[in-house]
Write a structure and sequence with these properties.
It is a lipid-anchor; GPI-anchor. By secondary structure, the chain is of the alpha/beta class. The chain has 15 helices and 17 strands. The strands form four sheets. Strands 5-6-4-3-7-1-8-16-2-17 form a ten-stranded mixed β-sheet, with helices on both faces.
Length: 521
Amino acid sequence: TMKAFLLTLLAQLCSASLVPEREKDPEYWRRQAQETLQDALRLQHLNQNVAKNLILFLGDGMGVSTVTAARILKGQLQHRKGEESLLEMDKFPYVALAKTYNTNAQVPDSAGTATAYLCGVKANEGTVGVSAGVTRDRCNTTKGQEVTSILRWAKDEGKAVGIVTTTRVTHATPSAAYAHSANRDWYSDGEMPLDALEGGCKDIARQLVENIPDIEVILGGGRKYMFPKNTSDVEYPQEERHRGTRLDGKDLVQAWHDAKPAGKVAKYVWHRRELLSLNLSRVDFLLGLFEPGDMVYELDRNNETDPSLSEMVAVAIRMLQKNPRGFFLLVEGGRIDHGHHEGKAKQALHEAVELDRAVGLAGRLTSPRDTLSVVTADHSHVFTFGGYTPRGNPIFGLAPMQSDVDRKPFTSILYGNGPGYKIVGGERENVSAVDFAHANYQAQAAVPLRQETHGGEDVAVLARGPMAHLLHGVHEQNYIPHAMAYAACIGPNRAHCSSAARPSATAALLPILLLLFLLLC
């Protein structure tokens, strides 16, 4: 009994030390709530400016559980407990939920969802930039079913446009901005079946260069799809898997150069140093392809050869800001999804933290007066964390108790399915014998699969800037680009855009300028 008493006392002492001193004072919570209340009341003065600039941040696979875990990770990387931390995206005043299903899928994929949040039309899984009249793989169903994206709507209004991603620039998310394809995997003609080639369908890399030849900024991975088959890669000349894949013999980087108008400067770069040393005032078009395939996980990135997502975003914004009519920028943290598929939560969450860093950087380079920023995900994952962990528990750590069924410890982070399923000697693996804090540790899963799957629940949509209040409830995912386009006066719905109907950022300043004029006179 004395032993039990001492253990209870120890537990109580430990529990008390988990609580930061200021949080023990009820005034701390009341004061914080009142500050939040004042912020909320200030939102009654709606920002109804016309959005000159639009930025869409897309965390691929960044469901709500991923956002929460990334917030805790960010705080713990700053040597705090983590739960009370704020992500940059947490500071956005408006939050909605998006229903992510595809027209033929309850749990969606990244292609059908990208068509929804970029083109404003729900579509079938595996298809990009086409309506639900197109079935995956069926090239002959594509003609006449193409749907255009908000990137195209912005370009048609004379805005500058850009795409930044940590995946291949021909991957599902970016490709829906410019391509129309019955299969998201048709990166180059080398990945296409004969019937699709004979049917006249174009691969995605070729569409990147040909469909909208005046995209100002394209940054990401995917070099190998731009070059003829067996062309050695510039960075990994000895590696066969990184060689060019094209069967048509085209050098699409050269074709990209050749498509630019006379007198315009188009720069292609493949190295971080080249990117960061550019004099952007002298560059009109920028193509940066930093890896043959997807870019390397942020945790493993070679920071001499490859830029981070935030470094690419900083360059993109500075390039696009040269256009007086404003810009549209798509920023994808595309490898959050890959980390989860591989059951590698640590990789996924560090990718999410880096996307959030890019959100913060973009916020410092722009103003919410004239820039509508939206952060969302295409879909979730079957990723979870729980187990009654105490305050400040390391996000990649163990739950405080053992299972009362198999008497083994377990990590807080788990997956519903995936490659982390492991039976040792007929029983669940004992994680205390494993380095569960390793970057490539695969968290335990309930069902064995080579690749973990997406999750089907709604995802968050966070918004800040002109007309951000239009994102406010539970929406179909395809509503997002319609709301953004309305705010920017681009796309088909522009009846509200007469100068009388909507103030611009300049118009909003007129009463202040008039008052100053009267005071000075």
